Amino acid sequence: MGTTGIDKRPVHGPVAVKAPGPKGTGEVGLAGDRVYDVKHHGGVHQAVYAYAREDLDTWQTELGRPLANGGFGENLTSLGLDVNGALIGERWRIGPDVVLEVSCARIPCATFQGWLERDGWIKRFTRAARPGAYLRVIEPGDIRAGDPVEIVHRPEHDVTVALVFRAMTLEPELLPRLLVAEALSPEEQESARRRTA
Hints:
The chain is of the alpha+beta class and 197 residues long. The protein has six helices and eight strands; from the N terminus they run ββαβββααβββααα. The chain has helices spanning 53-63, 110-116, 121-128, 161-168, 175-178, 186-196, and strands spanning 15-17, 48-52, 76-78, 91-94, 98-105, 133-139, 141-143, 149-153. The strands form two sheets. It has a six-stranded mixed β-sheet with strand order 3-2-6-5-4-8. A two-stranded antiparallel sheet has the order 1-7. A hairpin with a 3-residue loop joins strand 4 (91-94) and strand 5 (98-105).
């Protein structure tokens, strides 16, 4: 499998969050974290990856093995937040300083499948349509485990993370609906335009 940034571990104390450099550098938004597949991961629009603890719990039961926070490579594990139902462009304030904006859905890769050591994992994860969300950094600062998450802005469309994921994977007929989400990452915007032309 090679080197991977999926192996995340919970930390104690503050973690600095800032906008990373462009994709291709391996940088992400949290200090001490990075990605190794620099062609497909990292950069401004994938600065932070959020996954819901509730979804990890569901997978934990289905897979029959424990999944710690960070177990899917997320660098932000939420509790009580509908990550997959978040709207593209929705903004979250985490703690007193940090504001993040939902930009796109995670698309599973072979590294993820290798990490979980499950044949057919990509198909199984895709069918479930619980991908988690990538976010960009709007306001930098420090976050800590247990910081409250407040939704401070919701755009006037219905394009959720789950809808983007379904459109990009198994339901391409949904692609035209994505075009109203101005905050969708440029790569996904271009893909949606190209595939609906």
